[in-house]
Amino acid sequence: xxxxxxxxxxxxxxxxxxxxxxxxxxxxxxxxxxxxxxxxxxxxxxxxxxxxxxxxxxxxxxxxxxxxxxxxxxxxxxxxxxxxxxxxxxxxxxxxxxxxxxxxxxxxxxxxxxxxxxxxxxxxxxxxxxxxxxxxxxxxxxxxxxxxxxxxxxxxxxxxxxxxxxxxxxxxxxxxxxxxxxxxxxxxxxxxxxxxxxxxxxxxxxxxxxxxxxxxxxxxxxxxxxxxxxxxxxxxxxxxxxxxxxxxxxxxxxxxxxxxxxxxxxxxxxxxxxxxxxxxxxxxxxxxxxxxxxxxxxxxxxxxxxxxxxxxxxxxxxxxxxxxxxxxxxxxxxxxxxxxxxxxxxxxxxxxxxxxxxxxxxxxxxxxxxxxxxxxxxxxxxxxxx
Length: 386
What we know:
Blueprint: H1 9-20, H2 30-36, E1 39-45, E2 48-53, E3 58-63, E4 66-72, E5 81-82, E6 88-94, E7 100-106, E8 112-114, E9 126-127, E10 133-137, E11 140-145, E12 148-153, E13 169-173, E14 179-183, E15 189-191, E16 199-204, E17 210-215, E18 219-224, E19 229-235, E20 237-241, E21 247-255, E22 260-269, E23 276-277, E24 286-292, E25 295-300, E26 305-311, E27 317-324, E28 336-343, E29 347-354, H3 363-374
Antiparallel strand pairs: 1-2, 2-3, 3-4, 5-6, 6-7, 7-8, 9-10, 10-11, 11-12, 13-14, 14-15, 16-17, 17-18, 18-19, 20-21, 21-22, 22-23, 24-25, 25-26, 26-27, 28-29
């Protein structure tokens, strides 16, 4: 029995790189890159590009060649979702006392609105295109729409339970990390995974006809809802749908002799065909790709830059630069402040927040965030994945 977390794959190789650093001092120092910080989860909006970092403790906004922190709290950037109108970020807010609340961050004015009073455990926030907001409180799924609230018992705590674009379905994990579709109109469920492996991170295609997900070991699969078929893609991380709902992009990590050798960004059709290496650059360590117009946006680890990639008419990639990181992300010692947040039907309250733009030291806090955000995404991850 073992723990396998795809988003920790880079950290795993970082440890391996550290062990081999004395053998090859000229090699890329992945451990230093992790310590300096890098950007992930890029979400284009009219106000700029929203992003988080590898510590997931801050939410940023890129605009006109610079960036600023919008909000900071433990784990706030991990699994954050952009609302359909691209004005708000849905995320899990974790207080210093460990209580959690599903929340919305207004990108324009940085106002935080709680969707529920803080509780022991809650889930991530997701949106449908017709105005529904979904999240979990304890073992229940909550759907908010037009001032109403519906509750669906799931029988277990689930951290990631995204609602479909049409607002008719929710995908969630059970205690054995198998994925189910819940029909919100009939309350009927359909199991879409076979039970041979644990499965995580379900993502709806923009048209709502397919679900992208990963095994615990990082093998990407797509479930075609209309045809009720499953397609295997490849082993990859930071996977995202393109806007055409036919293609997806992901990061492939390369290793040799227990050492991280490189990474590239790939594009594939939803049925596992047409796999193409978009970056194909042995000397560049690209990760964390996301759709950006008709192209992609990604982070280069060793060049410390946020870049865009578009394919020209002759098929050659055209690389653009969004931001060049001048060293580290400038983490500062942590200080605690108090800010006002709004809770619907509860008026205004004071919540203890972390100072924007800081890193949170302290092993106890980070172990707690690890437990809350990594281990509680939807059932036990201590499953054998063979």
